[in-house]
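Note on ligand handling. Small-molecule inputs were canonicalized before submission; formal charges were left as drawn, and no protonation-state enumeration was performed. Where a ligand contained multiple stereocentres, the stereochemistry in the source SMILES was retained. For zinc ion, this procedure yielded the string shown in the input block below.
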Amino acid sequence: MMLLKVPTQIRTVFTCQLCGHQAPVDYHDPAPIDEREPVPGKDRHAREQAINDANAKLEKQAQKALRIVRCPACGRLDGKAVRKALLQASLPVVALAPGLFMGGVIGTALLAPALLKTAPRLPVMVGALLVLVLSPLVLLHRYRQLRKEATRSAHFLPPAPPA
Ligand SMILES: [Zn+2]
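Structure output:
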């Protein structure tokens, strides 16, 4: 067993799905693990294998992030990739919705017990309203976070001089 500093940066190529523009880019892991990773075995082969695995993982992560980075040539975003990112961002909202709803129902019942006699459906309506209003906000926030993270992690390099 040995400890290995895993790579947190990778040089890769950005390819615009819309205009075909390609640019070299340095991608930094936005949440690098500072600790050294334990690697089973201690020969050179195991070490190289571990570094290769880490690089492959980082490359995959980079390509995923680069899809929601604005193209430096045409300035556009790939709509399909954006929808995918939005879908991903919506997962925490789905997990959050029942809690929001219940919170709204219970909160209203507790805060406005007098109103319940005249409007018994009020807590349910408040719960539903909370989900309707807050879900898009959470989604938007998460999506912005994803895009900001991707943009911050990608550093475009000057194009290589033509060979
Ligand atoms: Zn482009």
